[in-house]
Write a structure and sequence with these properties.
alpha+beta; Peroxisomal Thiolase, Chain A, domain 1; ten-stranded mixed sheet; two-stranded antiparallel sheet; 11 helices; 18% strand
Length: 401
């Protein structure tokens, strides 16, 4: 079998809910990310892209009918470039990369464009079709922005609690107090702000001018460098009256897209660039739906075993910060140095547009390894309804330690 590599990564800025990207359709966001990543490899003839695997968690509105293929057309790629859209909720774009890497390693293809998109602002309200025509009563519109909707009554109630309540249960289980969660959130904002100021994201983020005349969005909108633990302590709990989870220590609703170009080693000549990192291991895991926040622990452990390394070898971790509490639970379980986790900020600050987050994590990890010269990194993401994914990257640029 051959091996699969990350050649390039790019993403849009992540916008706040109803923020500067609210006027941009998700298929347009996806097209922008596609053009952005291909702009990093100008020697690549787009006709050489053998498939596009794209992630999206909603698919109920403007991102319906295979948003991956729609974005290929909107990006101006040749109509001969095929595309599929995959949905593993928050893990969709990381799943897209995993699927593509397997196809490359099997020898089916050499170059695959992956990524994902979500506009949580533009997610529609939906009306369920009535079981019989012309019902006399009212019909309730259901928001598709986040979480369970149109729940099957056969599902056990303990499985279908809100995402926030599920993580309050995690806080109880592992005795993680609110102060630790708020400290973790403040760290995310400060690290993200520092990374932007130092120019880390300039090579990863594509500016967007939504209106074409009002000025480009160049930076993630959710970053609050003025955050303090004392300030976050004043926020009310969002899910329980006596709970610990607030709007300050959870990831915000967001809009954005990410893209990652994968290829075989033999594809380097066609792409016109050397790879950044090798996909060395993959892991997938599932447990009870309400415990989804803890699922990355075993997913990452399995990815490490697949790569033939241990946590002692790992120098960089990109863990999606759906909630501060689940991130802390995972880091505690891995017993790793917290300073290697999300050193450029995480989703609490940067944002979490569901279908785009996995691609952001993978691209950020590859660039962290290139910047530091360290060899091994892990990215992991929790997924609603009890799942998680993880990928191990090996730096193939100049390794110094």
């Amino acid at each position: 079998m051959t091996e699969s590599y990350v050649y390039a990564a790019a993403r849009t800025p992540f916008g706040r809910f109803s923020g500067s990207l609210a006027g941009v359709r998700p298929d347009d966001l996806a097209a922008i990310a596609m053009k952005g990543v291909l702009g990093k490899v100008p020697a690549l003839d787009p006709r050489g892209i053998e498939d596009v695997v794209w992630g999206n968690a909603n698919g109920a509105g403007e991102d319906n009918r295979n948003v991956g293929r729609m974005a290929v057309l909107l990006a101006g790629l040749p109509t001969s470039v095929p595309a599929t859209t995959v949905n593993r909720l928050c893990g969709s774009s990381l799943d897209a990369a995993i699927i593509a890497s397997r196809a490359i390693e099997s020898g089916d293809v050499d170059i695959v464009l992956t990524g994902g998109v979500e506009s949580m602002t533009r997610a529609p309200w939906v009306l369920p079709k009535p079981e019989r025509a012309h019902p006399a009563g009212d019909v309730t519109a259901v928001s598709t922005t986040l979480g369970w909707r149109l729940v099957n009554p056969r599902m056990p109630q303990e499985w279908t609690v809100s995402l926030g309540e599920a993580n309050e249960q995690l806080a109880d289980r592992f005795c993680i107090p609110r102060e630790r969660q708020d400290e973790f959130a403040v760290r995310s904002h400060l690290l993200a702000d520092t990374a932007w100021q130092e120019g880390f994201y300039e090579d990863l983020v594509i500016p967007i001018d939504p209106s074409g005349k009002s000025g480009a969005v160049t930076r993630d909108e959710g970053i609050r460098p003025e955050s303090t633990v004392e300030g976050l302590a004043t926020l009310r709990p969002a899910f329980r009256g006596d709970g610990a989870i607030t709007a300050g220590n959870a990831s915000p609703l967001s809009d954005g897209a990410s893209a990652v170009l994968l290829g075989s080693q033999a594809a380097a000549g066609l792409i016109g660039a050397d790879p950044l990192a090798r996909i060395a291991g993959r892991g997938v895991f599932a447990l009870d739906p309400q415990a989804f926040g803890f699922a990355p622990v075993e997913a990452a452990n399995r990815a490490l075993a697949s790569a033939g390394i241990t946590w002692a070898d790992v120098s960089a971790v990109e863990l999606n910060e759906a909630f501060a509490v689940q991130s802390l639970a995972c880091v505690d379980a891995w017993a790793i140095d917290p300073s290697i986790v999300n050193a450029k900020g995480g989703a609490i600050a940067l944002g979490h547009p569901l279908g785009a987050s996995g691609g952001r994590l993978l691209g950020t990890l590859a660039h962290r390894l290139r910047e530091s010269g360290q060899r091994w990194g892990v990215t992991a993401i929790c997924i609603g309804v009890g799942q998680a994914l993880a990928v191990v990257l090996e730096n193939v640029t100049e390794v110094t330690r």
